[in-house]
Amino acid sequence: MQLGIIGLGRMGGNISVRLSKHGHEVVLYDRDPAVVSKVHGRAEKSQEADGLKDLVSKLSAPRAVWVMLPAGRITEETIETLAGLMDEGDVIIDGGNSYYKDDIRRAATLREKGIHYVDVGTSGGVYGLERGYCMMIGGAKEAVDRIDPILSALAPGIGSVERTPGRDAEGLDPKAEQGYLHTGPAGSGHFVKMVHNGIEYGIMQAFAEGFDVLRNKNSGDLQPEQRFDLNMGDIAEVWRRGSVISSWLLDLCANSLAKDGTLSEFTGQVADSGEGRWTIEAAIEEAVPVPVLSQALFTRFRSRSGNNFGEKLLSAMRFQFGGHIEQHSTEKKHGSEVSDKKD
């Protein structure tokens, strides 16, 4: 299948390469021509485009274009421009972390022009090229079915993960075992991914706080006989082996702590990329109590005014799974087609 991809940052570039490896042809565009050339060199079945109009012209109808840009104005403007270039029956895919209410609005606007809109919540970070991407997909069934060859190539597949007992029951989608799922109408994919990221905040915070307690067990405020000099890297490693809290996030903790048990390269100033806030807003609208998720978000705010070891570990985990670089409070945040933020 042929697919246009706009935005070739950490995930957009790897998505392009993975699709090429699976035999799909990708047409590449990023506002930085050097990035386009670099990804083109990695993706055997690819063409370079020098703009949105050129990208659309290189695609055969019915077309499909995947937008992989930071949520907000840059995605909004790109989709508006594409809508003027594409035809009835074409598909625009937003694979970033857009707000789900924006998806609902965009889908309705594009529907009037006969253009399909599909929102794909994409998780996998910098490991997705080899591992594949977990995807939560919103949109009309007709459009989602049409791009299934793309989705199945990007998904991790069942791999070595043990099957869940009872998965053969009626009403359960077999594609969920493959790592991707059509969740419902437009907006539902990004809504599920939004809550996924809110949960991620909470799990990461729990690890960060627990390791902070372990590290401070050698505090001079404690009685000498109660002090333990514990090795953080070894504890993370032993917990990976058969523990009930073993997980990919714990694996990432172990990676960071094995490299540097003091996490000296991190300040502990932890950014939030939007989905945590939106999850709390949704909980308020639904009158659902989420004390763990809200506290995890507020702790990220607090981390920007003085940091502890736990917050350094949060930064380390974010760097491990997504390549997220700490943004200091003196730095201006800005969106970029080559720096898509993904949790």
Description:
- With 343 residues, the protein is α/β, with parallel strands linked by helices.
- It contains 14 helices and eight strands.
- It has an eight-stranded mixed sheet with strand order 3-2-1-4-5-6-7-8, with helices on both faces.
- Helix 11 (248-259) packs across helix 14.
- The longest helix is centred in the middle third of the chain and has 28 residues, at 188-215.
- The chain is elongated and about 75 Å long.
- Residues 329-342 have low confidence and may be disordered.
Mean pLDDT: 93
Strand order of the largest sheet: 3-2-1-4-5-6-7-8
Structural class: alpha/beta
Q: How many runs of DSSP E, i.e. beta strands?
A: 8
- Report the total helices: 14
Helix content: 40-55%
Oligomerization status of the protein chains: single chain
The radius of gyration computed from the alpha-carbon positions, rounded to a whole number of angstroms, is: 21 Å
**SSE run:** EHEHEHEHEHEHEHHEHHHHHH
Sheet of most strands: 8 strands, mixed
Shape category: elongated
* Stretches with pLDDT under 50, minimum 5 residues: 329-342
**Residue share in β-strands:** 5-15%
N-to-C span: 27 Å
